[in-house]
């Protein structure tokens, strides 16, 4: 699985407020860049924390760019949620209409949630033992059997940490915008329990000025 993590942070490195309320950090130019990125990947992944906080649909992408990349009538990027206990609400925007939505879940997801979310249109992908985290290596193997071989990961900070922890990130891009959010409880780009050693090493590939901020792109060594 090829994994590109992309997110927007405030100038002080926050993804959203301490109440986990979504903030528009990007401007129009950066949203257009994200739409092009989405068009380049087989799927777009977020954690269930982002689904609960933001209710994203993850449908929007640059269709002309996808046609240019993949030829006529390409399938749109699949939607993927890391959702151990299947907490995604049955009326979440991410389950509405097309394209397919894969919910990666653990053994702890109840039969009732499995039935409810299958009935709501989700495709369930079992990927985890008894712990409270989807096991990404196994989950990605399972996604590949569905034809998803590349992912744009949009957040949040818990999921991004897990991916770095398992050495699964190939590229990282961050739009750093001209706003300050603050708050020690506010989510940052990489949360989780953090590294104490073995810090992932990044190689700077690009710096681009957009809107009132800058996009930094790194390859992960
Ligand atoms: N500015 C931006 O670009 C973005 C901002 N956000 C913000 O981030 C916040 C949500 O981020 P988080 O709370 O960190 O939630 P998250 O979106 O990273 O989801 C974390 C949840 O995913 C589930 N999960 C399953 N397997 C997991 C694994 N292996 N590792 C980690 N989690 C796993 C767990 O239930 C966990 O609580 C929201 O406030 C949202 O607004 C989210 C995406 C992009
Ligand atoms: N790139 C970016 N810039 C911002 O300013 C943001 N607030 C976000 N948030 C994430 O974008 C996703 C929403 O997607 P749709 O509206 O469904 O297309 C979701 O993952 C947000 O957390 N991203």
From TrEMBL:
Reaction it catalyzes: 2,5-diamino-6-(1-D-ribitylamino)pyrimidin-4(3H)-one 5'-phosphate + NAD(+) = 2,5-diamino-6-(1-D-ribosylamino)pyrimidin-4(3H)-one 5'-phosphate + NADH + H(+); 2,5-diamino-6-(1-D-ribitylamino)pyrimidin-4(3H)-one 5'-phosphate + NADP(+) = 2,5-diamino-6-(1-D-ribosylamino)pyrimidin-4(3H)-one 5'-phosphate + NADPH + H(+)
Record GO terms (molecular function): 5-amino-6-(5-phosphoribosylamino)uracil reductase activity; NADP binding
Entry-linked InterPro entries: DHFR-like_dom_sf (IPR024072), Rib_reduct_arc (IPR006401), RibD_C (IPR011549), RibDG_C (IPR002734), Riboflavin_Biosynth_HTPR (IPR050765)
EC numbers, comma separated: 1.1.1.302
Transmembrane spans: none
Domain Bacterial bifunctional deaminase-reductase C-terminal: 2-216
Keyword presence, Nucleotide-binding: no
Top enzyme category: oxidoreductase
Pathway membership: Cofactor biosynthesis; riboflavin biosynthesis
GO BP: any one term: riboflavin biosynthetic process
Keywords carried by this UniProt record: NADP, Oxidoreductase, Riboflavin biosynthesis
Family label: Belongs to the HTP reductase family.
Subunit architecture: Homodimer.
Protein name: 2,5-diamino-6-(ribosylamino)-4(3H)-pyrimidinone 5'-phosphate reductase
Organism: Salinirubellus salinus
Lineage: Archaea, Methanobacteriati, Methanobacteriota, Stenosarchaea group, Halobacteria
């Amino acid at each position: 699985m090829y994994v590109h993590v992309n997110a927007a942070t405030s100038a002080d490195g926050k993804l959203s407020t301490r109440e986990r309320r979504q903030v528009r950090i990007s401007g129009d130019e950066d949203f257009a860049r994200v739409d092009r990125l989405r068009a380049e990947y087989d799927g777009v992944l977020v954690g269930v924390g982002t689904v609960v906080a933001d209710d994203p649909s993850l449908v929007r992408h640059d269709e002309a760019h996808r046609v240019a990349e993949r030829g006529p009538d390409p399938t749109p990027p699949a939607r993927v949620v890391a959702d151990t206990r299947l907490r995604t609400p049955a009326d979440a925007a991410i389950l509405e209409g097309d394209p397919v939505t894969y919910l990666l879940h653990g053994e702890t997801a109840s039969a009732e949630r499995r039935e409810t979310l299958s009935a709501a249109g989700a495709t369930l992908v079992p990927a985890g033992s008894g712990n409270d985290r989807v096991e990404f290596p196994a989950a990605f193997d399972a996604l590949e059997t569905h034809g998803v071989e590349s992912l744009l990961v949009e957040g949040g900070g818990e999921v991004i940490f897990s991916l770095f922890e398992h050495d699964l990130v190939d590229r990282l891009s961050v739009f750093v915008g001209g706003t300050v959010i603050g708050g020690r409880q506010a989510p940052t780009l990489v949360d989780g329990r953090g590294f104490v050693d073995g810090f992932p090493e990044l190689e700077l590939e690009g710096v681009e000025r957009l809107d009132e901020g800058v996009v930094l792109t790194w390859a992960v060594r």
